[in-house]
Amino acid sequence: MKVLIMVIETLATILEGYIGIMFAGLLLESKYEERKLRLLAVTASFFLAVVVSLLNHVELFSYITIVFGIVSISIIVFILYKCKYSHAFMIICFYFMCLNYLDFLGITLVGAVLQDPDYSNYVVTTYGFLRIRQMFICKGLLVIAYFCAKRFIKGKFKTNSFKQYMILTLAGGIGVIYLINSSLELVNFEDVVNWIVFSVIIVLSWALVLLYEKSKHEEDMTRFMEMRTALLEENYKGLSAAYSANAKVYHDFNNHINVLYQFLIRSDSQSALEYLDSISEPMKTLLEHTWTGNEVIDVIINSKLKKMQDYNIKTNINVEFPNNSDIMSSDICTILGNLLDNAIDACQRNQNKENKWINITIRIVNAMLIFKIENGNEVVPQIRNMQLVTSKEDERFHGWGLKSVASAVEKYEGVIQHTIEDHIFQVVVSLNYNRIEKCQM
């Protein structure tokens, strides 16, 4: 019987550790594929259970054991997931608060129903049938709570609200400890009422934090749209200026023809060539080369190409574009313009001349449009949560170019991928698109 009890105790501890590690996975990004992560979580939980079993032989319920569990599982989470240790520690503190809340809420409810004032004290200090029965009840509640959490909170941890989460976790932990000590002294229906009141307070507190998160998110989205509009306006201003210069040339076409005619009548071909070169200067940037037949892409490439030449950046261009696609010109401008600006900025920071280069590739693959921008790179870009972080010092547009690209890509259910290897930075954007059939007249 004693061996069976020890086996059940060990399995329950493994379950607690495993759910704690996997719970962190609902909020953080793993460093490993899911199958390997689960294997590592089970292995780590087994070794933790061995240590906890040894500690339980000293004292069956101890806050020292709880602290050991929090610290050790936090370290495991830090190793298995992409996060700061402080975030891992806070998440596991929250998990242990919930774990002990469920355990002692269940113990208090059963003790009150059985009208046994010493029920909780007996369960947490004595091996036996009552403890095993209560363990099944509490671990069942834990599994149910985990699956509920898996459904409702996956990926919703925001690091910018870390302080609010930590304060709530500490306050909740203090409340749980107080109620645990109260239940250990004597179990009655008054304790049940205290647990219910505490539950309501905790739920309302977290609801307030979530509402605050939602309002902050809406503010950020409003600001994002304003900045995105500003970036688009900035790109279009450059294109508009070039078009305006050409419009002026076309508007004065007759006057220019007359001047050229006068030069040619006097057989002054040199002056005619110089004058022709001067009036065609505004058109050279835009009309120098037709790359795809798509006006927006051609204008962007030609305008950026001029900038690259000014900075002595070598360029290789291999592009095409589907006819009649449903990809909006503004989104093309956002994606291609920002990616090329980032590549140019990176090349400007490079010290070695051989690393000042950019390759531009746009290809059609089945029903997908692929943008691939490669550039020489000497400064390793910052990456946070699998996302590129801008290195620009301009606070007004801090990071909004990258966010604009991500937003435009999302509209077409596309993806952004990047690789960094041997002083080469590559970003690939894949967009899904549909063809728009032209109406036949």
Low-confidence stretches: 393-398
The helix fraction, in percent, is: 55-70%
Given the C-alpha coordinates, what overall shape results? elongated
Main sheet record: 5 strands, mixed
What's the average pLDDT? Answer: 80
DSSP helix count? 13
The gyration radius over C-alpha positions equals 33 Å
How far the N terminus sits from the C terminus, by CA atoms, comes to: 88 Å
What structural category do the secondary elements indicate?
A: alpha+beta
- Tell me the strand order in the biggest sheet: 3-4-5-9-8
Element-by-element helix/strand order: HEHHEHHHHHHHHEHEEEEHEE
**DSSP strand content:** 5-15%
Number of strands: 9
Describe what this molecule looks like in 3D.
- This protein is α+β, with helices and mostly antiparallel strands and 441 residues long.
- 67% of the residues lie in helices and 11% in strands.
- It has helices at 2-25, 34-58, 63-80, 85-114, 119-125, 129-152, 162-185, 189-251, 253-265, 269-287, 295-310, 329-349, 400-411, and strands at 29-30, 81-82, 314-319, 357-365, 368-376, 382-384, 387-389, 415-421, 424-432.
- The strands form three sheets. Strands 3-4-5-9-8 form a five-stranded mixed beta sheet, covered by helices on one side. Strands 1-2 form a two-stranded antiparallel sheet. It has a two-stranded antiparallel sheet with strand order 6-7.
- It is elongated.
Layout of helices and strands:
Blueprint: H1 2-25, E1 29-30, H2 34-58, H3 63-80, E2 81-82, H4 85-114, H5 119-125, H6 129-152, H7 162-185, H8 189-251, H9 253-265, H10 269-287, H11 295-310, E3 314-319, H12 329-349, E4 357-365, E5 368-376, E6 382-384, E7 387-389, H13 400-411, E8 415-421, E9 424-432
Parallel strand pairs: 3-4
Antiparallel strand pairs: 1-2, 4-5, 5-9, 6-7, 8-9
Helix pairs in contact: 1-2, 1-3, 1-4, 1-6, 2-3, 3-4, 4-6, 4-7, 4-8, 7-8, 8-10, 8-12, 8-13, 9-10, 11-12, 12-13
